[in-house]
Amino acid sequence: MQDIRMPKHSSTNTMADERKIVLVTGCSYGLGCYIAKTFAADEGQRFKVWATVRSLAEKTRMEEMAGSLLNKAIYILELDLSKQDSVDAAVDHILSQDDHVDILVNNAAITLIGPLECLDFNRGRQVFEVNFFGHIRLIQLLIPRMKERRWGRILNISSLASVVSKESKELCICMIFSHQFLDDCLTDLSVQGSPFLDFYVGSKHALEGFSESIASALRPFNVWVSVIQLAGVSTEHPTNVLVHGQTEGIVFSDGVDEATGDMLKVWQGHLKEGMTGVQVQAPEEVAKIVLSVVDTERPQFRFQSSQGGNFIASTRYSDPSGESAVSSAVDIITTHNLTK
Predict the structure, then answer these.
(1) To pair with 44 at 20 to 30 A between CA atoms, which of 112, 241, 306, 312?
(2) Which parts pass through the membrane (predicted)?
(3) With a cut of 50, which residues of the chain have pLDDT below it?
(4) What pTM was estimated for this model as a whole?
(5) Please, what's the b/e burial string for 120-149 (b: 16 or more CB within 10 A of its CB; e: otherwise)?
(6) Does residue 76 sit in helix, strand or coil?
(7) d(CA 313, CA 302)
């Protein structure tokens, strides 16, 4: 691994010493780059940002966006969330330089698409390693100093999921477009159930539940945990969503029944159609929302990044039966003849 360490700050009371230390995951491409750049470019020069990439071979996009801020306000660090030794090493490196992290933005995620019975279980396990366990390990390592210092912000980037109702089709598909996905598949959906995205949705539900659990135990230490639920976010090459990397991301076996295959094709088309709808936000806008949450003195637990997202969340959380989401998804994927 390339040595990207910098000298420790001196004990002199400089502006650099007073900056909040920010760690952002998933900065190889997409939204993570914009979040890191927004913090680093803050007019008040309030932040020093550690922008992590899965491999240093993937740092080019972050370097380009950082520009003159590179190695001044943005420092790129290798961190593979699927490997505990990589997570531990990255945190050790940051703490050796800056002693603590004030703000953790868990943004990275990967996905896997296909009928559950056809998917490689180890690849499904990897989705949980990255989307859930990797982020939990980061939180576990960083909260002791946050608690000691009586200040911290933990922001877990999530996304609202697919189906609300047939009557609100333009708001049915909520996506975050990014390159941080298994086999470069560029679709990120979740929080609510979504057909054929079982491992991904499960990992996101797990992270939200975990976040809600730790939030109450950390607030007495002035450490605030928030979940930011995104609607559509357009970053690099949004037209490639559900197309790019498709052969790697969707795995069939010889035993797949024709009806299930047809349902998957219908769902893919539905997602792709939703991608062109309203409520798609620019990544710069979302990054500013993330910064505004950090700047809130007492941030609430759950935020939606848009009015459309707020509508979806209201629908989701006002239906204790869960039927509105499940039945709408069934209606969509069974628009063909299942008896053939």
Answers:
(1) 306
(2) none
(3) 1-16, 161-191, 237-253, 276-278, 337, 339-340
(4) 0.79
(5) eeebbebbbbbbbbbbbbbbebbbebbbee
(6) strand
(7) 10
Give me the DSSP letters along 183-195. GG--EE--SS--T
Residue 42, SS3 per DSSP: coil
C-alpha 301/C-alpha 240 separation (Å) is 33
Which residues, listed in sequence order, are joined to residue 2 by a DSSP beta bridge?
A: none
Q: Check if the beta carbon of residue 160 is closer than 8 Å to that of residue 230.
A: yes
The tokens describing 287, both together, are: 């990054």
Output the six-digit token pair for 15.
Answer: 């502006």
User: Measured in Å, how far apart are the chain's first and last C-alpha atoms?
Assistant: 54
Q: For the sheet with 176-177, list strands across it.
A: 187-188, 176-177, 232-233, 280-281
In single-letter form, the type of residue at position 293 comes to V
Nearest to residue 308, comparing CAs of 337, 333, 274? 274
Quickly tell me which residue has 């900065």 as its tokens. Answer: 27
> Per residue in 269-307, pLDDT tens?
776 665 544 456 788 988 999 999 999 999 999 887 656
Q: How far is CA 169 from CA 162, 166, 257, 279, 306, in A?
A: 10, 6, 28, 12, 16
